[in-house]
Amino acid sequence: MADKCFQSLPGFRDFTPRDCAVRNYLFSVWRDVAHRYGFSEYEAPIVESTELYLKKTGGELATQLFRFEDQGGRDITLRPELTASLARIVGANQRDFPKPLKWFEIGPCFRYEKPQKGRGREFIQFNADIIGEASSGADAELIAMAIDTMLALGFGENDFVIRASDRESWLSFCTQHDISDPSEFLPLVDRLEKLKPEVLEEQLGTFNVTRQQVDDFVNNPENASPAFKEIRENLNARGLGQYLELDLTIVRGLAYYTGAVFEIFDTKKSMRAVAGGGRYDGLLSTLSNGSADLPATGFAMGDMVIQNFIDATPGAKLEMEAWMARNPPCEIYLVIADESKRNDALGVIAQLRTSGLSVDYPMTQLNVGKQFKKAEQSGARFALVIGSEFPEMQLKNLSSRSEQTIDNTSNFTETIQALLDAPDGPLIA
Amino acid sequence: MADKCFQSLPGFRDFTPRDCAVRNYLFSVWRDVAHRYGFSEYEAPIVESTELYLKKTGGELATQLFRFEDQGGRDITLRPELTASLARIVGANQRDFPKPLKWFEIGPCFRYEKPQKGRGREFIQFNADIIGEASSGADAELIAMAIDTMLALGFGENDFVIRASDRESWLSFCTQHDISDPSEFLPLVDRLEKLKPEVLEEQLGTFNVTRQQVDDFVNNPENASPAFKEIRENLNARGLGQYLELDLTIVRGLAYYTGAVFEIFDTKKSMRAVAGGGRYDGLLSTLSNGSADLPATGFAMGDMVIQNFIDATPGAKLEMEAWMARNPPCEIYLVIADESKRNDALGVIAQLRTSGLSVDYPMTQLNVGKQFKKAEQSGARFALVIGSEFPEMQLKNLSSRSEQTIDNTSNFTETIQALLDAPDGPLIA
Q: Could you give the CA distance from residue A138 to residue A133 in angstroms, rounded to a whole number?
């Protein structure tokens, strides 16, 4: 009983400080890259009217909704993704914003799925969308940002690749093979690797197409669409072309994609795609009943899959740990060696904090040995010791074990800041 | 119909980029102050088992829950507050963490209330708690952090005050007046100002107490508890004593508070309290069925009330706007004056962004006049113009209208960074 009451619901996560620091690292990288690319952050409600989601997709997503009736009898849903809310917000405010919009969002989404590695019922998504720009230049900008996100996370050329295609290529294929309804054929392309060969062959047969014809089409780079070629040239100009690979088998599962589509893959293929996106020119119009008929392209990355990928990639893990080291929970632990000096210590703490430093200290009397233990546990690099000699203080470097005297002069906070910014000095023992 | 589909649910907010920047400003200040005070960030699930909340409070909160059954038949609730989750997480992990814990959280909470100014059905709370420290030193540390939060938001001594009391004072009063069950008497103190005088007098009568006796008690500073006096001395030592005021009418509505309690008030009293908190030594034990019997003190601040307070306070508003100016959505807008140089421009953009700068540009061909209009709209301080003279580029300061030539040399990004960091030069027209 006591045990049960400590558990979060299945598929929901607690973020203790260490987990939350990992999350904050992702947030920091995502925000930094989005900022460098000139994207503005927005946020939508966690809860929306259910009709917003039923309109968009149907299919698998509709069966995975956290959907319920509120106290006012409304049919409401915990958002399973952001695009529907984005369309709603852009539809409501589009006259206020010059196009194109470059917007990003970071926040939780909810799906009632079987919890497993890399998949929870509450997960965090990074969403970036460019709205109101139909040219392939927008697709290239978005894919470049996806690549730079991976680079900023410490992944290298050998770790990941962007596989991209364009639904337009398959529309040509459909025309060539007299397939009248591409929307029925494309889901089959999405499952080329997933279906059993005989089932695939049979289903292709209903369109009078053979596996060989599909393979020949997929394996011929000449079938890349003009948009794909423009995207490649654009990325080459940025020095990012080596991360892009044509893969005509990528069509993305959802029906609303209309143009260039892409997925980021772990090159060891040990995991599923870590992010994906594409052009969805008709969706905003559908979701807004025609009021916001704007071309759009977007991508999303979830926190759980990318965290697993970081954990499995030494370079990315090092990058994360370097960030953690630059952002310790505490910089200075103040040791009160003489309890009668507590009020003086509180004054020093207030000054250090006002100068921007992170300071912890024992809130009640504690022997000095225990205080140094707390100082070690706090993650602080320095202990500042205040004792009977105050206003003279001792600043101890907890890793190099060196120490020096600091005077409580008007600019002592600057002195300490400078020492914090400097690398560790020689060991004094 | 189209209109309806653009609306968020009543009491839920869309954060367009301007609103999201305000939210991010609050997040930035909250995180910065918490960091200076040595607090570590945690996060809990948005959804919890309903029993977690029913256990804690009952009362008003229980009628305001977004409560529903999930697809697996679980009785679940969108969290109305964080303390219950905090208790659950600490209970589950307490052996992993040296005490005291200083933890903070920033995230959405949900209550089914009538939406009104300063009150929504989804709102964001800043929660800070100290767990495992029973001394008044922890209360003082928490109240000091609350004060520094207000100061960091740009509020001054004339704008706000912390009114604090201690339930212990009222326990003495109850003993003096033979009130056997203080838990029935304290809610009356909480409503001293809210009840009609005759109703109050009648209800006090059931405890054999007169309004005069209550007023005499409240107006006598000698009734401050020892803990309150220690907190005052502690804050004085930090130079923060002037923000603290004894107010024995503050007891806080919720039943679980046990010691020092406080609220931050707008000194013009035009609004309700902007934040509040207090000591709740028994709650963790209750919520964890006795497994985590730790003393605790905490406070919470919601985003909606504090935003209204900022808007109504010139100093705080200036502080927020200064932050916005330091964090523009975009720093440089790249103008492509000669479309044949687009690939060169993309290379320059990639270099600028890699150096950490925020850059936007037209993703498709656009005449130069329109590009300068976009540059103005972007909020960028500089436009970098690439034309037929490339690798020579023109850097225009969009506010001072000055311009200078930049060469596409190896360190041109540093040159531009230095110009961005410098104040605007003389007007050249």
A: 6
